[in-house]
Amino acid sequence: MLLPPAVFEVSDAAVRFGEVRALDGVSLAILPGECIGLVGHNGAGKSTIVSVINGGLTPQQGEIFSDGTRLAPYGIGVARNRGVRCVFQELSLCPNLSIIENTRIMHRTLGGFGWRARARAIIAASLDAVFPGHGIDVGDQVGVLSIAQRQMVEIAMAFSDAGQPPRLVILDEPTSSLDAGLATQLLAHVRRFVAAGGAVILISHMLNEILETASRIVVMKDGKIVAERAAGGFDHAGLVKAMGSVATHQATARRSTGASQSVLDLPMAKGQPFRACKGEVVGLAGLGGHGQTRMLLALFDHHAPQWWPRRDPAVTFVAGDRRENGIFDRWSILKNMTIATLSDLSRRGLLQDGAETARGATWKTRIEIRTANMENPILSLSGGNQQKVLFARALSTRAPVVLMDDPMRGVDVGTKQEVYGIIRTEAEAGRTFVWYSTEMEEMQLCDRVYVFREGVIVAELTGDAISEHNILAASFEGTAA
Amino acid sequence: MRISTDMLRIAVPVASLLLLLAGVFYLQPRAMSYNGLNLLFNLAVPIALATIAQMLIMAVNDLDLSMGTFVSFVACVAATYLHDTPILGVLVLLGAIATYAALGVIIYLRDLPSIVVTLGMSFVWGGLAVLILPAPGGTAPEWARAVMISKPPLVPMAIIASVLLAVFAHLLIMRSSLGVLIRGVGGNQRSVQRAGWSVIAARASAYALAACFAVAAGICLVGLTTSADANIALRYTLLSIAGVILGGGEFTGGRISPVGAVIGALTLTLAGSFLSFLRISPDWQIGAQGGILIIVLAVRLLLNRLESKGGAR
User: Please, which residues 280-299 of chain A have a Cβ atom closer than 8 Å to chain B?
Assistant: First the structure.
């Protein structure tokens, strides 16, 4: 054989969760010096194959090889010794520990006297290599970092070398919390790493990133690999088609209806004030972490009394960081969905079971939550479907205003289109949406866009003026304001 | 310079301790002496040890409701077996520590609420203590007695013991690899697991370490009181929890501070003396102690809020 042996190979792996076939006979080999782009819908089995490779999940069927030898038994420890590193979709550092201490946790071999100095050197070197000029103090507690900084630390952690060099790095949606500049730095580092003989599996919903970075693209659907080609063999449209999702039709901005009945106001300490009208979709744009989330929280606090809930809620909130602010881990899908509308579903203080089940069934079909039974635990759903449940929770309330904090993080193209459709219909029916997103395409769906920079609204764009160019221009200092 | 979160976390307990100390000295200037300080803080040493033990359990997001009965049990063992037949006594205590480690494993493996398990165990420990010592009595081991009543020059024993305990616990829990691992389990168990560590081992060692500190608390207590009874330390359960919280720890998330916990224990002990000096009747003292606790926690909440306002990016 001319090819070098695969760094890692999964052969004919199958995983079932009850009725659901998460993986159905998947074989995948990763060669050194290769970056595999892994794409697919939510629930296509990407996260499952990642869990199999990193040893967190033992497939009911299938074998695992590394460097030509079969690994059995296989587990997290074996995977780490083989140089498999993983950055997960949800943040997985210990928030109560410093970055240095997290490095100690990640590298089991680092122990012994003076480990702090060694850990500091290792993580600082890795951060400098991946994100030059990152400005993060490695002595800081992870809990005080912003989401983007945490993600940077986590990525740097995966590429760090403490005697056991990383050989296969799996990046699951690594750029979802990073702004464009940081994402570029990361992808550049991935290319360097691959050029030096490392292997990378890159999972991303940003198809451009996959097309630009990967050397081979693997498309998954319903637990199977449905297409596998060298990167040159795909273009944007071809990839979307291979995933079998709804074709992305060009997003169009809705025109302002002219209704100017203001439903939401917030004077800002500096810059322009914020205002939203009935039936309007207002976008909050700008680089990540420039005050958009804080503004959404301020809006919520301003309109939702904390002491005594109002009979008719004024605002409802869809969180982007679902693990932290969204879901109740131990509850069923149905309970997670109806928690916001319990008073609507009860009579004389008692919850009407029938009404609750009916409400669940309606929304299950309306937004296509992929589950056999709404009584299943919420964690049995894939990430995108969990997010759909959070949408259903907010949209099923009677609140006239919906605040959305980057709600589409890690949601697949098809689901996004469905949700966009729902938002548009709801807005036409008179609901107001305030929508923070880092994706330009979503800003184009808005009637009006406020651009943030350093915690202040620096520009207001309406109608045709909402364009990637104008938003970027306003987001960066000194160019235009 | 930015004040680190840890610094702020420790600032409130230190300030409240100093404030109470100032109050006590103002009311009773004679307390400002070698003997006075020793008397004020004597009983704080076993409480501080029990607080560190509770803190280790809280570091892995659990809560130990059997702390008081366990310390009582240890005190009974120390006053009987450890005094009469030292080898048997040591074996019994080692067995108790092993039981704690096993509890940590069972709670994790069966996904049981620690509160329920330890509440159940509190009856077991209490029952064993009564079996060992049906009526108050027994004799403290001479060495324990000797250590506890020793009078080192310049600084009283109680202060030296507290400082040593704080330093030792800080090194063990905040600086060592094992401590990082235990706090990591409290912070994000899954990420610890994903890094290839055994969570079972980490939890077992947290519980075993906690038991070691609790055993030390029981022996210290007997050294001070010279004899034991089965109910000698019942109030330690709540005192230890309050001490951890007062010292800047939190119930979940592995956010703890050993130095703060020792200071918290000292503060709680001092609060009792302070109220006596104020001539508040014992009937009201528990309520007043609760009042002090609420005030300190309110101040901490306020500081947290200020900090998150200032530190927001």
Answer: 289, 294
* CB atoms closer than 10 angstroms to residue B235: 12
Specify the CATH number for the domain of residue A115.
3.40.50.300
Domain that residue A270 falls in: 262-475
Least confident span in A154-158, A296-300, B86-90: A296-300
H-run or E-run covering A346: strand A346-347
Nearest-CA distance A92 → chain B (Å): 5
Q: Give me the residue from B181, B190, B312 closest to A294, CB to CB.
A: B312
Distance, in Å, from the CA atom of A250 to the CA atom of A187, rounded to the nearest integer, reads: 27
Residues 143-182 of A with CB under 8 A from B: 143-144, 146
Selecting from B253, B254, B313 the residue whose C-beta is nearest the C-beta of A146 gives B313
Query: What ipTM does this complex have?
Result: 0.88
pTM of this structure = 0.76
Choose the closest CB to B177 out of A76, A104, A289.
A104
The amino acid sitting at B76 is C
- Tell me the domain boundaries of chain B: 5-305
The residues that bridge with A351 in the sheet, in sequence order, are: A346
Burial label, A243 (beta-carbon count in 10 A; 0-12, 13-18, 19+): buried
Contact B192 A105 (CB under 8 A): yes
Give pLDDT tens digits for A216-259.
Answer: 999 888 788 888 888 888 887 777 777 764 434 444 545 555 55
Burial class (CB in 10 A: 0-12, 13-18, 19+), A348: exposed
Does A291 have pLDDT greater than 90?
no
> Does A192 map to a domain?
yes
Q: Does residue A236 lie within any of the structural domains?
A: yes
State whether B191 and A108 contact (CB < 8 Å).
Answer: no
Residue of chain A nearest B254, judged by CA positions = A96
In a domain, A256, yes or no: no
Mean pLDDT of chain A: 83
Asked whether the beta carbons of residue A92 and residue B197 sit closer than 8 angstroms, the reply is: no
Cα nearest neighbour of A293 on chain B: B313
